[in-house]
Design a protein that fits this description.
With 570 residues, the chain is an alpha/beta fold. It is built from 18 helices and 18 strands. α2 packs across α6, α4 packs parallel to α6 and α7 runs parallel beside α10.
Length: 570
């Protein structure tokens, strides 16, 4: 068996064909990094088909059961039916070969796999170093099947691995609430797209929905109500479910800004809580109290602040096992802090707001490290022009920064300083952009004006799947700098989103990021392959809908059935 697997891998390397011009009869999304199908063929899947795997890992067991059921329950009917010869020998089994069954699902874990399906022997083999690579391979295997009774592509060889180790989606569950089933459906679809990080932006100014054992009053006073909270049991369920899909859950508690929701339980530790955000109107933006309605920032001078924070972070570390911990630190507003009497005294003694933030980070950064976590912040902590800390306070060895402003320029600035970077450029990766603003009585709508340029959205226009797919997150970086870009995340802020629109806002645009982060957005000649990705994304969106995901369409169905006819150029 080992000799046969080695032969299959050699065949993969020797017979790899170009998949960058036309879609194959049946496709995998994201497209594998290496796929060879020299003689396209199919086989029926035997009713007695079995998956053989080492079942000592419970998350692998769950994944195997899920995909075994999917093969016979999905009944996927492609938009354009494959026309392939069918082998007289049915596929009888898939055998998983895993080298390291115990490797944890942490950043940088090996997710590579090799998959072979033989019509001659009626068997398939999936080899991987880790369970997490096997889960990626199982998803590819399931996408190679179609029809009822099911058929599967055969005499096909895949060797696959991701370009970037961090491929994520950030979901804001503070501004509007999402049910546990909403979150789990999203995570399952992430796993199907080989995305591996669910960045859970749990708290913000608008609500504190997480019930924490040491600080239950934060959710009691800061959530939208008992029916819009996440219990510790909910979190454990979500984290365990995510692991069975190969998805890490990284929590974010956005501090010290965006913290109004803490004031219900602890009004003494929040400055400018619940004041009107533009006291002098839009024309005096410099004196705003927040970037949007919902004012409040934690007070770094109040000793109770750190007592509460330590409890929150400690409880979070027990609920979320991932080594990454996101502590926010974005969009600090000077006048929210300087409106507080204690901070006014601090400033009048010759200190600055940057020194105030430095005091906060000097406590919280080491405390998070003491929990055996790597700290993630938004880029503002270093790059905000008004309130920032010195680079020396947050060493690159213990800190990761997430960019959202100024495109590749901010990425370049941070990697040049030695930081690992997650890219979430608002110009490319913000899924909420282009839907208009949410503030009321906006006089901009009183007259017909230049609304079409940005959809009256601060980060407009709408980010199409092509724009997401085409963004090169390491453009202009040196080879050593590129190594510090660990990946990217699409972002859904939820001022105008909740569970009723979640699927359509996220999918299939997040799938575009998934392929760009997994196998890239260029072909073997370095050309962007957006055009050839269109039909494949149409197919994948069609399959996602069949799996219960209400992904929005990207073209009329007619376009997929008339290949090339919807292109801009013949």
């Amino acid at each position: 068996m080992a000799a046969m697997l080695k032969l299959f891998i050699v065949l993969v390397l020797q017979l790899t064909i170009s998949c960058n011009s036309e879609p194959l009869p049946i496709n995998v999304w994201p497209i594998p990094t290496s796929i060879s199908w020299p003689s396209p063929m199919a086989a029926t899947i035997s009713p007695a088909f079995r998956i053989f795997a080492p079942f000592t890992n419970k998350h692998l067991r769950a994944a195997v059961r899920r995909h075994a059921r999917l093969l016979f329950s999905e009944h996927y009917q492609p938009i354009v039916a494959p026309s392939l010869p069918v082998s007289p020998i049915p596929l009888l089994s898939l055998t998983l070969h895993i080298t390291d069954i115990h490797a944890p699902l942490h950043h940088g874990v090996d997710e590579s796999y090799s998959l072979t399906i033989s019509s001659y022997h009626g068997v398939a083999n999936l080899s991987s170093t880790t369970v997490w690579g096997a889960i990626r391979g199982l998803e590819s295997f399931s996408q190679l099947s179609w029809g009822s009774p099911p058929l599967i592509a055969t005499d096909l060889y895949i060797h696959d691995r991701p370009l970037f180790p961090h491929r994520g989606l950030m979901l804001d569950t503070s501004r509007n609430y999402y049910s546990v089933p909403d979150i789990m459906r999203t995570i399952a679809t992430m796993g199907a797209n080989k995305l591996n990080v669910f960045h859970w932006h749990i708290t913000d100014s608008h609500s504190f929905p997480l019930v924490l054992p040491s600080e239950p009053n934060l959710a009691a006073a800061g959530s939208y109500g008992p029916d819009m909270q996440y219990s510790p049991e909910d979190v454990k369920k979500i984290v365990d479910f995510a692991m069975s899909h190969g998805v890490r859950v990284v929590p974010e508690f956005d501090t010290p800004g965006h913290s109004l929701s803490w004031a219900g339980a602890y009004p003494e530790i929040v400055t400018c809580a619940n004041k009107f955000w533009l006291p002098n109107g839009l024309n005096d933006w410099a004196h705003r109290l927040a970037a949007e309605p919902g004012t409040g920032q934690l007070n770094p001078l109040h000793p109770r602040t750190y007592e509460v924070l330590h409890n929150v972070f400690r409880d979070s570390a027990s609920l979320f096992p991932d080594p990454f911990f996101h502590s926010g630190a974005d969009e600090l507003t000077p006048f929210c802090w300087s409106s507080d009497p204690s901070i006014q005294s601090f400033l009048s003694s010759g200190h600055t707001l940057s020194q105030l933030l430095q005091r906060f980070i000097s406590d919280t950064h080491p405390f998070i490290l003491s929990l055996n976590r790597t700290v993630v912040y938004w880029e503002d902590i270093l790059l905000d022009p008004t309130i920032h800390v010195p680079f020396s306070l947050i060493p690159p060895s213990t800190t990761i920064l997430q960019t959202w402003n100024n495109g590749i320029n901010n990425t370049k600035q941070l990697v040049a300083a030695g930081y690992r970077v997650i890219v979430s450029s608002s110009d490319f990766y913000y899924l909420d952009c282009g839907h208009g603003d949410f503030v009321g009585n906006d006089s901009a709508y009183d007259v017909v004006s230049d609304l079409k340029t940005n959809g009256q959205s601060w980060c407009g226009p709408f980010k199409t799947w092509e724009r997401i797919y085409d963004y090169d997150i390491v453009e202009g970086l040196g080879e050593k700098e590129k190594e510090l870009v660990i990946g990217g995340e699409v972002v859904l802020w939820s001022e105008q989103a909740d569970g009723t629109v979640l699927d359509g806002r996220v999918w299939p645009r997040a799938a575009a990021l998934a392929e760009a982060m997994w196998s890239g957005n260029r072909d073997e000649k370095g050309r962007r392959r957006t055009a050839m990705a269109t039909d494949r994304l149409m197919d994948w969106r069609h399959r996602m809908v069949g799996r219960g995901v209400r992904a929005e369409p990207i073209q009329p169905l007619w376009c997929r059935r008339n290949h090339g006819m919807c292109n801009l150029n013949a």
